[in-house]
Amino acid sequence: MSAGWPGRSEEPMEEPALRPQNSRIPLGPLDSAIVHRARAINADALRAIDDLLDQISDSGRR
Amino acid sequence: MDLDGAALRGFGDLTLALERECRLIGELYRAILQQREAIGLGDVSGVESSIRLASRALLTLQETQRHRATLLQRLVGDPAQPLADLDTHFDAALPETFLAARRLVQSSAAEVAEEIWHNQEVLLSALRERDALLRELLTGSRPTAPAGPPAAIAEG
Question: Which residue has the higher pLDDT, A33 or A48?
């Protein structure tokens, strides 16, 4: 059912240009807060793995 | 330094510590893949769960690394001794089990780092697309970002 005035659905007006039905809004229901949290834990993980690789490799002594 | 009984026991403990680190890197790897899948599906609880798994793996990994430092202190007197240079302290070849565990940790760590980078790029790109979409919805104008619009929009 179309929004708008009574009889709106009978009006021969074109719908405003919308995204195609199969077009996904980026991130879907994920809000930016959880994305930032995921990025933060990933950054921690990268630091930990970098440290580990430094400890294992011979060029690691800083 | 001789590779005597005490040193061999030290290497045994060090090998166990490295094997544990390898298992934890595996847990981190699974968490990262789960995170990527959940992002693709827009699965909030899946992302939450992946964050919890990754946090737990990281905390335990840090504990294991502290334990490894203690073992190194006992073995060669230096908790920060790089594992690749350990052979310089000993006259004989290091135990093969230790060398294998060290290689495995190194390759697993390099592999998981690549996967994490990939997730960071996916997340950053999704955030940018979302910002661009919001800007478009609010202002009615296409974003002026250098990156082109998502394919679905371009085709629409």
Answer: A48
A10 domain-assigned: no
B17 touching A (Cβ < 8 Å): no
Q: Taking chain B, what is the end-to-end CA distance rounded to the nearest angstrom? A: 72
Question: CA B114 to CA A50: how far, in whole Å?
Answer: 11
Determine contact: B116 vs chain A, CB below 8 A. Answer: yes
- Tally the domains of chain A: 1
B101 in Cβ contact with B22 (< 8 Å): yes
Q: What is the pLDDT of residues B3-18, one digit of tens each?
A: 788 889 999 999 999 9
H or E segment to which residue B66 belongs: helix B44-76
Cα separation of B86 and A44, whole Å? Answer: 28
d(CA B80, CA B114): 25
Inform me whether the C-beta atom of residue B25 falls under 8 Å from chain A C-beta atoms.
Answer: yes
Q: Which domain holds residue A33?
A: 28-57
Interchain contact, B83 vs A32, CB within 8 Å: no
Q: What is the pTM of this model?
A: 0.75
Cβ–Cβ under 8 Å, residues B72 and B78: yes
Q: Where are the domains of chain B?
A: 5-117
CA-CA distance, B129 to A30, in Å (whole number)?
13
Kindly calculate the radius of gyration of chain A based on its CA atoms and give it in whole angstroms: 25
Question: How far is A7 from chain B, CA to nearest CA, in Å?
Answer: 27
Considering only CB atoms, which chain A residues are within 8 Å of B35? 38, 42
